[in-house]
Amino acid sequence: MIWNPIKECMPEEQKRELQGKRLHKLVDYVYHNVPFYRKKMQELDLEPGDIQTIDDIVKLPFTTKQDLRDNYPFGLQAAPQSEIIRIHASTGTTGNPTIVGYTRKDIDVWSECMSRCLTAYGVSRNDIFSVAYGYGLFTGGLGVHYGVENLGATVVPTSTGGTQKHAKLLKDLGITALACTPSYALHLAEVIEQMGITKEELKLRVGAFGAEPWTENMRQEIQQRLGLKGYNIYGLSEIMGPCVSYECECQDGSHINEDHFYPEIIDPATLQPLERGKDGELVFTTLTKTGMPVLRYRTRDLCSLLPGDCPCGRTFVRMSSIKGRSDDMLIIRGINVFPSQVESVLLGIPECAPYYRLIVDRKNNLDILTVQVEARQEYLAQGVDTLAPITALERKVADRLKSVLSISALVQIKMPGSLERFEGKAKIVTDNRKLV
Ligand code: ADP
Ligand code: ZN
User: Fold this and answer.
1) Domain 1-325 homologous superfamily, CATH
2) Over the stretch 153-207, which tens digit does the pLDDT of each residue have?
3) CB-CB contact of 360 with 430 (8 Å)
4) Which of 47, 228, 288, 338 lies deepest, with the highest CB count within 10 Å?
């Protein structure tokens, strides 16, 4: 089934014409409503009239996460506050969070795009759908929730945590569809098994998994253990949230909701556009957003746009799975963590020396962040002869990290000089999560 065949199966020419019209309108809108974009365009000697077709997009300036931070909280908002009906914030916490305001129209577009995803997964009004993404500032929970309601299926807003209660609800309510991160799906599978519930006692048949990278092997394992078919869902709060792209039944790449989010792939070093099929950094322009539209937003996600048509009939271009990032961001338990954030916490603690490591593991399908940091010689010289002060320091570091990163880390204090020193590029982060 296809939710909106008129849009999802648009002939290429017609689609490009629509994208061009929407881009022209968008550029005019931000030029007159967001001083940041006006200034950037003036610097390039550009006026809204210069952007007439979708091919003109390459003339426009890029936008980065730093631009969003520098304009915190509402500097890039185009609509007046009275038009904004909801605010979300990105999960990352380097300095200022990224605030995204949505108008009623934006929320409607979001729900429409979510309904397209869910329909592609085979979800219908007859499904009972558990949304186990976090609700709150994170876009996952409410984003999927509105889509399920718009589609007319029954939504169960389970959110994250309370895994045993969730397992019981899956069984008792006969829940048929589930949305969560792939790692949480595996954790849930484990809890279900520990509770002695078999997959035959469950009615699960569809899973919408995303918000973090995952692999075919993980898909196989989740499918086998939960007895459902798992589909990819991709999104980011700066553009909308979940639903920017979605897999269809062919499961060969994810279709981008191209009438609303225009994708480009660029070489992250030269910023030049790359042709179809080439791996590079994914860039999005929100063609219809009115709250906080963005021009050519650099996602830092590395992937390609797939050439060729999809047998499902949708003409929206497909993106490959995400192969990495062009920055050093880690996604730990769904939360964006930059090594620099950890560094700034450690450097703010006088007892810690500036030598540290980040190790990420996945145990029982949950991400574990270990932070090793050397104590300063002066600190140890104060007659530390038992481990007690070290334990106190570990706790202090762990508390600081928790308050800044919003996730718990296992802290190990190391003796001065014990961590390897590097002559070339330091290898600070070891990610042992094998996504294969
Ligand atoms: P959200 O709050 O919607 O998760 P964030 O801005 O916190 O948005 O995180 C978005 C990032 O999460 C993306 O840029 C990408 O790196 C990652 N991500 C989201 N969905 C997927 C997916 N299906 N596969 C791989 N990575 C994903
Ligand atoms: Zn398809």
Assistant:
1) ANL, N-terminal domain (3.40.50.12780)
2) 999 999 988 999 999 999 999 999 999 998 889 889 989 999 999 999 999 999 9
3) yes
4) 228
Best residue among 86, 100, 146, 234 to mutate for probing ligand 1's pocket (most ligand atoms within 8 Å of CB) is 234
Q: Please report the sign of the dihedral spanned by the C-alpha atoms of residue 266, residue 272, residue 273, residue 275.
A: negative
Under CATH, domain 330-435 is a member of which superfamily?
Answer: ANL, C-terminal domain (3.30.300.30)
Q: Which of 322, 330, 367, 435 to mutate for ligand 1's pocket (most ligand atoms within 8 Å of CB)?
A: 322
Residue among 189, 91, 86, 184 nearest 131 (CA)? 184
**Structure tokens of 167?**
């397992």
Q: Where are the domains of the chain?
A: 1-325, 330-435
Does 330-435 match 1-325 at the fold level? no
Residue whose Cα lies nearest atom 13 of ligand 1: it is 236
CA 43, distance to chain mean position in Å, is 31
| CA 253 to centroid of chain Cα atoms | 17
Cα four-point dihedral sign 408, 412, 413, 417: negative
For the entire predicted model, the pTM comes to 0.87
